[in-house]
Prior knowledge:
The chain has a single domain, classed as Jelly Rolls, CATH 2.60.120.10. The mean pLDDT is about 95. By secondary structure, the protein is an all-beta fold. Strand 7 and strand 8 form a beta hairpin. The radius of gyration is 17 Å and the shape is globular. The protein contains no helices and 20 strands. Strands 1, 13, 14, 15, 16, 17, 18, 19 and 20 form a 9-stranded mixed β-sheet that branches. Strands 2-3-4-11-6-9-12 form a 7-stranded antiparallel β-sheet, with no helix packed on it. A 4-stranded antiparallel β-sheet has the order 5-10-7-8, with no helix packed on it. This is Pirin family protein. Belongs to the pirin family.
Amino acid sequence: MKTIYHKANTRGKADHGWLKSHHSFSFASYQNPERMGFGQLRVLNDDIVKPKMGFGTHPHQNMEIISIPLSGALSHKDSMDNKRAITVGEVQVMSAGTGLQHSEFNDSRTDEVNFLQLWIQPETQNVTPRYEQKKFDEAKRHNNFQTVVSPQDNIIGDALGIHQQAYISLGNFDEGKTINFKLHDASHGIYIFLLEGEISVGNETLETRDAIGISDAGTVEIHINTTSKILVVEVPMN
């Protein structure tokens, strides 16, 4: 088993006033040659957007983009005529493919928005752009991993599909639990990002916003030291 340990305070930081962001991997002005992604996972940004502020219209191409609100609501518009609000409990996916433009905005006058944005490199280039979002029953992730994103050709339950052999799961666990996370493909790796709490994986103890990347392991044992919320991203490593 190979591991890469990323403490929360070692992430890249950006403070634009209206936006505060932490970058798990190189992004924009944060460039770290040792953090260019994990397998096909290229970006994991932890963003906080101030009230009445947001990302203006900008383009993307040939990337699978996933947004997961943690607090607040984010208003979305794109060149495919989608105009939706993304709220806590929902997950949004966009296949940028041949190209699209979109904007994300915090319409609240009082509340910040905190959301995760993940970019996963697609297995097929220049697909037709697509957009989908869905609300998931969070009760189903109590002491269990709920798959919210899976490959287009292998949809797990009511997960959203993307153009890559990748899976994103969320779980909320009680203190004292031990979970054996079985990968869908033993050649893949998983990036465990701790949203809240404290867990132990192998010889490492993770606290809130710490992460660990694991490869060459078909199953990974996770010990829940305190009540915890966990994001797991399983991706091909090449």
